[in-house]
Amino acid sequence: MIKADAERAAPCAGLRIGDVAPDFSARSTTGDVRLSDYRGRWLILFSHPADFTPVCTTEFVALAQAASEFEQRDCALMALSVDSLFSHFAWLRLIRDRYDIEVRFPIVEDPTLVIGRAYGMVAPNDSDSATVRTTFFIDPQGVIRAMTCYPANVGRSTPEMLRTLDALQAVDGGPVLAPANWALGEALLAQPDASLDTVFSAKGQADWFMKETKRGSRK
Ligand code: BEZ
After folding, report:
1. What is the pLDDT of residues 55-91, one digit of tens each?
2. What is the 3-state secondary structure (H, E, C) of the chain?
3. What is the rounded CA–CA span in Å between residue 94 and residue 99?
4. Pocket residue to mutate for ligand 1, from 47, 55, 132, most atoms within 8 A of Cβ
5. Residue 156 Cα, ligand 1 centroid: separation in angstroms?
6. Which of 32, 44, 67, 95 is the most exposed place for a label (fewest CB within 10 A)?
7. Which domain of life is it from (predicted)?
8. Catalytic positions, written as ranges
């Protein structure tokens, strides 16, 4: 569990791709949640600076509108901020009334930022103790497979979150690679076979390291 470690951790504690996502349990808008209960499916854990702020509101509306897209990819969403559970409830009610969309994924309350600090979600030099827009893509084994960090004044792209998830899922069976701007259904690249025989026997100059392979599809 996070607690003991997190109390020692500096802001932006160095979680890396390949690390097991630190476990925690917390109160959320859908009841108590424990990160390890999500083993067996993909999870996007993301922080936002504050409830009742303009950019965050657009992000939550966009994510709630795309809920079925994440569901199709067997990926759960979990949000987190320093705000209290009752603030989350009031904000979700406002979003429902104003934008006609219900945010049904859990929003965790992290009033002491014990989780936010353990995940490096708190900007180290920020006078404001709020989380920045950090996003962790966690695989069904609980391993961090990708992460992004945006500032408070720039909202994330839901299509890019879905594309990243598609790419992570497509390369999962290996040994294939997702090229720049790859989208579902497009060709993946083969993992280069690094041997001198392959290099010398390749027809074209780049053929030994640049080869298209099967089209990525949803599993
Ligand atoms: C926003 O979500 O609009 C926001 C949050 C914190 C600081 C600045 C903007």
Report:
1. 999 999 999 999 999 999 999 999 999 999 999 999 9
2. CCHHHHHHCCCCCCCCCCCECCCCEEEEECEEEEHHHHCCCEEEEEECCCCCCHHHHHHHHHHHHCHHHHHHCCEEEEEEECCCHHHHHHHHHHHHHHHCCCCCCCEEECCCCHHHHHCCCECCCCCCCCECEEEEEECCCCEEEEEEEECCCCCCCHHHHHHHHHHHHHHCCCCEECCCCCCCCCEEEECCCCCHHHHHHCCCCCCCCCCEEEECCCC
3. 8
4. 55
5. 12
6. 32
7. Bacteria
8. 56
Q: How far is the CA of 193 from the centre of ligand 1 (A)?
A: 46
> How much distance in Å is there from the Cα of 8 to the middle of ligand 1?
28
Closest residue by Cα to residue 115 from 41, 5, 40, 18: 5
Cα separations in angstroms, 111 against 36, 88, 195, 203: 21, 12, 54, 61
Q: What is the pTM of this model?
A: 0.91
